Amino acid sequence: QVQVVESGGGAVQAGSSLRLSCVASERTFNSDVVGWFRQAPGQEREFVAAINWSGSRTYYKDPVKGRFTISRDGSKNTVWLQMNSLEPEDTALYYCAGDSRRPYLNGILSPSYYANRDSYDFWGQGTQVTVSS
């Protein structure tokens, strides 16, 4: 079973940047779709971004398009979420998740898959991002 650990969160002011990291242990997750989700207090966990196994395709929630970038490096067994121009609305606990049940998934992925929490079978504990105005 893959275990992932997120890091890189913090408390910043609006307009700042942060880079979140998701590192896998126990086994590589280089064949898996990996996503970032976030959960603000009192709200449901929501999709933020996803990347396919090769890194050739990325997907984003509309409010973060153009501000956030998801990327991965197989040699480091790591997926990053670069977050620029942060807004107070980005404040949340950010989770990394992966789908080990469908390795090497090719083609254009459907939002009903990559934005669905149930598509992912392993999750990290989260890293807190707090953005003040």
SSE order and pairing:
Blueprint: E1 3-7, E2 10-13, E3 18-25, E4 33-39, E5 46-51, E6 58-60, E7 68-73, E8 78-83, E9 92-99, H1 111-114, E10 122-123, E11 127-132
Parallel strand pairs: 2-11
Antiparallel strand pairs: 1-3, 3-8, 4-5, 4-9, 5-6, 7-8, 9-10, 9-11
Distance between the termini: 40 Å
**Rg, alpha carbons:** 14 Å
Write the H/E string, N to C.
EEEEEEEEEHEE
Query: Helix share of residues?
Result: under 10%
- What proportion strand? over 45%
Largest sheet: 7 strands, mixed
Q: What structural class is derived from the secondary structure elements?
A: mainly beta
> In total, how many beta strands?
11
Low-confidence stretches: none
Protein model, in words:
This protein has 133 residues and is mostly beta strands. 3% of the residues lie in helices and 46% in strands. It has 1 helix and 11 strands. The strands form 2 sheets. Strands 2, 4, 5, 6, 9, 10 and 11 form a 7-stranded mixed beta sheet that branches. It has a 4-stranded antiparallel beta sheet with strand order 1-3-8-7, with no helix packed on it. A hairpin with a 6-residue loop joins β5 and β6. The chain is globular, with a radius of gyration of 14 Å.
